[in-house]
Design a protein that fits this description.
160 residues, Arc Repressor Mutant, subunit A, two-stranded antiparallel sheet
C-alpha cells in the first residue's frame, strides 16, 4: 500500500470516529439537554467519594481549561444537577457536589457511546487495551495536537 493510500485510510478512519462522536453528542443534547462534557462531569462526580470534587480535579479529568469547566459547572448548577458547597475552612475552595437530580440523569444516560465503548472494551485484555491507547497517542503525535485543549465548541449557550 502506498503512503498516499495509508494516509487516506487513516484520515477516513479518523473521520468515522469524529462523525460517531458528533452524532452521539447531538443525540445526548437532544435526549438529555446536556453536552458530552457535562455528562462526563456528572459521571465523574458520581464515581467520586461523596459525589463531590474540586474544580481543579474536574479540570484535570476533563483536560479543559478553568474557564470552560467553570462554564460547565454553572450550566449544570442552573439545571439543578450539581451544587457548589462553600467550604467554611477554606474560602478559596468550593467543592462541587452531584445532586439527586444529577444522579438520576446520570443513570438515564448510561447507554451513551461512552458506555457502549466501555462495555465493548471489557473484552480486551490489558495488553490489547494498552495497544489501542498507544495507537491513539501516536495519532495525536502525528497531528501534533498533544497540547490541544479538549474544550467543546460553544455555540450560544449550547456546547458541542
Amino acid at each position: 500500500m502506498s503512503n498516499r493510500n495509508k494516509y487516506s485510510e487513516l484520515m477516513i478512519s479518523i473521520r468515522k470516529i469524529v462523525r460517531a462522536v458528533n452524532l452521539e453528542s447531538k443525540r445526548i443534547e437532544k435526549d438529555f439537554g446536556l453536552s458530552i462534557a457535562q455528562v462526563l462531569t456528572l459521571k465523574f462526580l458520581k464515581e467520586n467519594t461523596e459525589y463531590k470534587s474540586t474544580m481543579k480535579l474536574l479540570k484535570e479529568y476533563l483536560s479543559l481549561n478553568a474557564s470552560t469547566v467553570t462554564g460547565i459547572i454553572t450550566r449544570l448548577e442552573n439545571k439543578g444537577l450539581v451544587a457548589r458547597l462553600p467550604n467554611p475552612n477554606d474560602k478559596r475552595s468550593t467543592p462541587i457536589i452531584l445532586t439527586s437530580k444529577g444522579d438520576e440523569l446520570v443513570n438515564k444516560t448510561n447507554e451513551s457511546l461512552h458506555e457502549r465503548m466501555s462495555n465493548s472494551t471489557q473484552k480486551f485484555n490489558e495488553e490489547e487495551f494498552s495497544q489501542i491507547i498507544v495507537s491513539l497517542e501516536t495519532i495525536i503525535e502525528l497531528f501534533d495536537i498533544k497540547d490541544l485543549d479538549a474544550s467543546p465548541i460553544i455555540s450560544g449557550q449550547t456546547e458541542i
